[in-house]
Design goal:
157 residues, alpha+beta, Type Iii Antifreeze Protein Isoform Hplc 12, SH3 type barrels, five-stranded mixed beta barrel, 1 helix, 9 strands, 29% strand
Amino acid sequence: MSLRAYVLAACGAAVLAAQALAAMPAAAQEMVVVATRVVYPGETVTSDALQSVALRRSKAGLPPIAYDRTEVEGRVARRTLLPGRLIALSSLRDAYAVEAGKPVQVLYVQGGLTISAIGVALQPGSTGDLIRVRNSDSGVVFSGTVMGDGTVRVGAT
């Protein structure tokens, strides 16, 4: 086989391989979520700021990234999310149920006994986080768990 015939055969094989990849259905590629606009730190990510696209490179060496919109929607950006860039899950946090410096209802529940008080959250917290709270009446600082309804539940020490 001559050099020219070999080069033509190799080029033909490369063209066939490229056509086979181009004909591959989009569903066979892995889909990821990217931002469609700049999302600034502290901003809640909304569905209109997201788009699903095909992953164009290998996942090797990537941090955990968002593959589904439900992993991103309603969460808050910790750092700036740029349009068209992969969204690392570490760049997001859950929205705070309790804000620092704001009044919060504190509940102590033991069996049938429920004691309620008003306190000031000393740090922000999402559902399930352990935060510090100052009792508004006595000034005593204690820790409690943030509940889904925005209250803080404390236990016996």
